[in-house]
C-alpha cells in the first residue's frame, strides 16, 4: 500500500469526504504513475478519483467498527497541513482575483 494513503477506518470523528477524496486521489496517482495532473490527464484522473472515493465511502459504511482507532493522525487533520492548505487557497484566490482585475503577474 502506498505509504501516503491514510487509514480512514475507525477515525473519530469519522473520515470526511475531503479525507476520502484525498486518499482516493493518492491511490489513483500511485497506480497510474500520474504525479502531476495536466490538461491531458485531468478528466480521467478526476473521474477515477470520484469513483474510488464512492467505493471507499460505501466500504467504510459497510465494515464493522474497529476495536482500536488508527495510530496515526490523518494528514488533513494536522494543524501544519491545514495551515498549508489555507495558505494555498489564499494564494489561489489572490491569483484568480488578479486575473479578474487584469493585473499583470507571473505564473
Terminal Cα span = 35 Å
Radius of gyration using CA atoms only: 17 Å
SSE string, helices as H and strands as E:
HHH
- Estimate the strand proportion: under 5%
Number of strands: 0
Global shape:
globular
Mean pLDDT: 88
User: What does the main sheet amount to?
Assistant: none
Task: Count the domains.
Answer: 2
Explain what you see.
The protein is mainly α and 107 residues long. The protein folds into 2 domains: 1-72, no CATH class; 74-107. It has 3 helices and no strands.
Can you tag this structure with a few keywords?
0% strand, 3 helices, globular, 2 domains, 107 residues, mainly alpha
In short:
The chain is an all-alpha fold and 107 residues long.
Blueprint (SSEs and pairs):
Layout: H1 17-32, H2 42-62, H3 79-101
